[in-house]
Amino acid sequence: MVDFNRDVYCLLGLPFDAVSMPQAVERVRRAVSDRRRCFLSTPNLSFLIGCLNDRGFRDSVINSDLSVADGMPLVWMARLLGMPIRERVTGSGIFEALRSDSACRISVYFFGGPEGVAERACQRLNKEAAGITCAGHECPGFGSVAGMSDESVIARINASGADFLVVALGAKKGQAWIEHNRSRITVPVISHLGAVVNFVAGTVHRAPVWMQRSGLEWLWRIREEPGLFRRYFRDGLALIVLLLTRVVPYAWHLQRHKVDADQLANADAEMREEGRRSVVRLRGAWTRKNMAPLRDCLARAATAGKDVSLEMGEVTYVDSAVVGLFVLLHGYQTQHGRQLLLLSLQPLVRRVMGYCRAEYLLNHVEA
């Protein structure tokens, strides 16, 4: 079941949790301790660009249990738009935080990476008296997602008893492999962390901390892996377009449209059942400051196990946090083969959803 209490924001089509590095590490630890499923996604700029026109890739991030901003450009855009995403939370940083804490040990299984690299990473971990030990590794080669997903593969992963499955197949294929198989995998924490295997093995070195914090890590990555230049150049051009057409206009919009306390106080949400459909009627202005009733209604609507309609004809305003909740509901409904309809959106609400690059939600709109 999706957690509608997450502090999540929609940035250019993807949900991002407003968490610090210690909070993200603690969530992973808690998932391991409770043996509770946690699909961790770490979208960076390349992820974000790739998700714009790839529904499956985008849905894999939406369906994650925790989605962190693994890139300074994302953090800078979030700050400009008033989202409380204050720091970059990298997948490699989470891994290293777990690795450095020898007082609380967990085990990892590496799936993917270049030939021999996962084995080398496993050996290096097991020689350390560190917080992470290696329970196993596998290099499946370059086949299809289906070809890497037979029962023997899943059985080996489950039999390892690992706490953390690190996938390294390339971002799109890795996320697709996780989506294809996670219902069969008993390892509690799963994440595609492609570079981590190389970092642990020592075949690729991380950028100095000052470069990571200043947003210049991409220069270091090109130095280490020159083949990345073309991808980074393409992503940079796409970022410029997004800044000019979405981010800067949204920042200007936020300066011109302020919501006062009276508007927030008058917001109202209620749910009713109409046959095979759950209907949530919303009224007034909704932002992260008054979202508790909305969280409750969406959670009850999702739990009902029916198609969901959001009646929004009387909604005067939404922000990126509200759009983030709609994105989570969209993901949950899609996963379960059910419909989400947004009804009678006001022009201002449509505009905000466009700034958030959430047009895919507007593809399910009835007038």
List the helices and strands and how they pair.
Elements: E1 8-11, E2 14-17, H1 21-34, E3 38-41, H2 45-51, H3 55-62, E4 66-67, H4 72-80, H5 91-100, E5 106-112, H6 117-127, E6 132-138, H7 151-159, E7 164-168, H8 171-181, E8 189-192, H9 194-201, H10 209-214, H11 217-224, H12 229-256, H13 261-265, E9 268-274, E10 277-286, H14 292-303, E11 307-318, H15 320-335, E12 340-343, H16 347-355, H17 359-362, E13 365-366
Report helical residue fraction: 40-55%
Low-confidence stretches: none
Question: Please, how many domains?
Answer: 2
- The CATH topology of the largest domain turns out to be Rossmann fold
CATH architecture of the largest domain: 3-Layer(aba) Sandwich
Can you give the mean pLDDT?
89
Please report which band the strand proportion falls in: under 5%, 5-15%, 15-25%, 25-35%, 35-45% or over 45%.
15-25%
Q: Rg, please?
A: 21 Å
Widest sheet, order of strands: 4-3-8-7-5-6
What structural category characterises the helix and strand content?
A: alpha/beta
Cα(first) to Cα(last) distance is 29 Å
The global form is globular
Query: CATH homologous superfamily of the largest domain - what is it?
Result: Response regulator
Q: Indicate the CATH class of the largest domain.
A: Alpha Beta
The description of the largest β-sheet is:
6 strands, parallel
Q: Helix count?
A: 17
What does this entry look like structurally?
The chain has 367 residues and is α/β, with parallel strands linked by helices. It folds into two domains: 8-236, Response regulator (Rossmann fold, 3-Layer(aba) Sandwich); 261-366, 2-Layer Sandwich (Transcription Regulator spoIIAA). 48% of the residues lie in helices and 20% in strands. The chain is built from 17 helices and 13 strands. It has helices spanning 21-34, 45-51, 55-62, 72-80, 91-100, 117-127, 151-159, 171-181, 194-201, 209-214, 217-224, 229-256, 261-265, 292-303, 320-335, 347-355, 359-362; strands at residues 8-11, 14-17, 38-41, 66-67, 106-112, 132-138, 164-168, 189-192, 268-274, 277-286, 307-318, 340-343, 365-366. The protein has a six-stranded parallel sheet, sandwiched between helices. The protein has a five-stranded mixed sheet with strand order 9-10-11-12-13. Strand 9 and strand 10 form a beta hairpin. Helix 14 (292-303) packs parallel to helix 15. It is globular and about 60 Å long. 43% of the residues are buried.
